[in-house]
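#random but structural
TW: two for the price of one
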Amino acid sequence: MSAEPDPTPQPPPATKPAPSEHPAPIAVIAGGSGFVGTALRDALLADGWVIRGIGRSGPGATWGDPASIRRAVDGADMVVNLAGKSVNCRYTTRNRDEIYRSRIDTTRALREAITDATAPPALWLNASTATIYRHAIDRAQDEFGGEIGEGFSVDVARDWEAEFFADELPSTRRASLRMAIVLGDGPANNLLFGLAKMGIGGPQFDGWWFAHRRYRGIGPHASGPARTHGRRTRGRQRFSWIHIDDVVGAVRFIRDHPEVRGPVNLSAPTTTDNRTLMQTLRRVVGARVGLPAWRFMLEPAMWALRTEPELVLKSRWVVPGVLREAGYHFAHPELEPALRDVRARR
């Protein structure tokens, strides 16, 4: 007698899922542990990107392992390099050398890895700094007619970009991100807000101080005088800035606009001077009084804080020529609303 058929429905045989026609794009973020890198990582993850990291240690690629760096960049769609020792420190000989080498060496390692890649990334964005331009009070500096300055910070930026743009990478578009001071959850913002809340958020005046060698040039083409004196700015040194949202927005914009390449100033379209900056900060934090500070006061204070007066005394008048010409619309073009937004998120 033949067996009765089993009436229980049977599941269909297992099949291997078909590969996606549009796999998730891959971004490599090098040196992404700071607040800029964290914001960018979160934004790209929200966009559906897969993130590969490169750092000093951890489960991903590391700077001491060139083979791991090659594996990370091979097949990636975009590389963003933010690596480099923080400049929020005293410019001792040891720190100066580390600031310089940490930028040059990591950029060289990435360039060599991309050169050797079987499938190199289509886009490489490398951090740079708006401090590459001269101390400017007379006119704004953009990518088309801006004048390169001299001294330690400028030499770091100039050699950093030279390493970045060295050699031919025919399959990879490159843009250097000349970032102004980024408004967000970073050390510069914490310092400025703290000064304003403590009642010492008045203007900072440059002026005479004992000549020193901390800002002397560095690298094979060191520039500027061996010893540095102050400048008389009367609190009118310019302050260029950009909100963290616009750093992320600019990265997305450059990614999606293949005509953008070369140096790109990441700065808001409006700048202010130090006096106005500090007045604005006092309004934002509700401080009635803001005592001014002269260089002879700032030098010992900054020594105690283990940072440099240059961070608040150099006049940075930088405007985003390339981004404006390409049609980028800033989310935070005005200083006071940008500061209020940053404070609301703290």
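TW: number two ↓
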Amino acid sequence: MFAERIEDLVESPVREILKVIDRPGMISFAGGLPATECFPELDLSCVNSEHLQYGPSEGDTELREHVASLLCERGLETTADRVLILSGSQQGIDLVAKLFVERGTRVSVETPTYLAALQVFDLFGAEYSGYSADNPVLGNAPLTYAIPTFQNPTGHCYSDAQRRALALACDQANSVLFEDDPYRDLVYDDCDRTPVCSYIRNSEWVYQSSFSKSYAPGLRLGYLTCSEALFPHLVRLKQAADLHSCRISQRLILSLLQQSSSRNQKLTDFYRYRRDHFEKALTRLFSDIADWQRPVGGLFFWLALRPEFSIDTRELLKRSISSGVAFMPGEPFYPKGLQAVPGLRLNFSHASPEAADKGLQILASIIRAACESRV
């Protein structure tokens, strides 16, 4: 009755967990939710009747031109006629997977990596090989998926040497680099954010980003650019998916981008404070439970549980939710067939500092109790 690939279709762990965060008193460290306090005020006067009509699949011209100028500033050689506006960056993952992945196609990924990308690749029958930023051995994978800047879930930001090494590995393996860059605007400390795609010399590449984290996820808008040979195929795939992205959202985003303000600085100051407060609480409550590195950008802490506290964090989640705290277990971030390391992804942007203190205390107590019960 159904297509064969439906056997590989699984529910998104993030979306399932987010169903419970509206419960009264629930403290959520689960999804990559921006703080509602940081959402922009929207002025609908920039929208007129023209933007209620069908538009080009590639996106509205003015927005594409603005995005192209931003991409050139980042070091990517592209033009407006190679910019595709997306209905969120998740659509970009879907389009690229449709273009390259069929049953048995090998995809090279970081371990761990973004679980919603794995969900899409799994649907089309991908098999996986893992690589690390320090050792980007890609084997015979025709597609490489990477999040070099504030990686999800670990928060790691590649150094210049790691970026150049990944680009070289893609060139040598003739592997298409699919670079996902949704968090780049949320930078709190000095670091390298040069797109790895800018170092590609021989192989094909796709670079995408999003307006969800820096503006508002409800507008569902992202964008991509790519090497010239790939662009027509991705446009046709988008035409088959949704004709074009919401033109009202495109107009609103363009208006926000054109405003000269100190919004970006205020945004990063806000999240830097939340990150620093969150880490102080982690140090106080988790120093003997887990190891982590302070992220220089993005929205997450990745906690690798120490061996004596090693536990299936999916089982831990059930106890945690019943106690009013939601988080993302680490196991779903590992592709099938590759060894998972017990860990937790904790979002620091959404909960207030007071709620974060309370939630982390509850979570630490649950982990300790779970480990004691095994003795």
